[in-house]
Task: structure prediction
Amino acid sequence: MVVSGELEPEYAYELQVNLQPRVSGSFTPDDATASETLTVPLNELVQDSTNFFDFRRGAGDGRLYYTLRLDSAIAVEALDPISRGFTVERRYYDAACDPAAETCEPIDTIAAGGRVRVELTVIVPNDRIYVTVEDPIPAGTDAIDPNLLTSASGNEGVIVPAEGEFGRGFWGWWYFDHIQYRDEKVVFLSQFLPAGTYQYTYFLQPNIPGVYQVMPATAREQYFPEVFGRSEGAIFTITE
Result:
C-alpha cells in the first residue's frame, strides 16, 4: 500500500449512470480510508436495455476501488437455465415410482407425508477445481440425510457419473469431498472434478402443505465464480 500510494491519495472521482452524473468528490491523505455509497433504484434504470455505469478517476496518486452490486427480486418461474462452464439440471420424482421398473415422469406436486426423489445432473465440459454445487430445497420439505441413524434405510444418496458426450470412464463419489444436508439446501464440495456428466440422487420429505418457490440449483468454481451454471427455477406444491 505504501508503494502504490494508496495511503496518500490525491485525486478526484466521479460516477455517471447512463451518462448522468450521480456522485463526485475527491480523496486526500486525510480520508484515505473513506468510502462513498450510492443506491440507484431499479425504476431509475433503463428497462430491457443496457445500463452504463462509468467510474471516472482524475489524475493524481492513489488507487480507486469500487464495487457494483445488483439486488433485485425476480419471480422464480422466470429464471431460465444458464450454462457458463457448468450445465445444471434438477428434476423431482415421486419416490414411489421405481425407475428400474417403470418410466417415471417429473412432478411438481405431491401430498404431505409422501417422498420425493431428486435427480440433480451436473455436466462439466472441462476439468474444474474447488467446485461448489448448491441445490436449494422447497420450503416445507426436509432433505433426508442418509448419514443420520434416524434416516430410514433405502434413502441413501447416490452419485452416478453418467456416460454421455463428456464421458471418459468411471468416476465415483470420492470426487465430491463433502456433502452437507442443510435446512434449506444440499451442498456438494469437490476439490477436483474431472470433465464429465454427474448425477446425484437424494430424497426429500414433504411435511408442510403449501405452494413454494424453489431457487435454481447452481454450480460454480469457488475462486472463479464467473465459471457458473444454474438450473431453472421452479414452483413446487405440497398438498394436504
Observations:
- The mean pLDDT is 88.
- The longest strand covers residues 196-206.
- The CA atoms of residues 79 and 233 lie 5 Å apart.
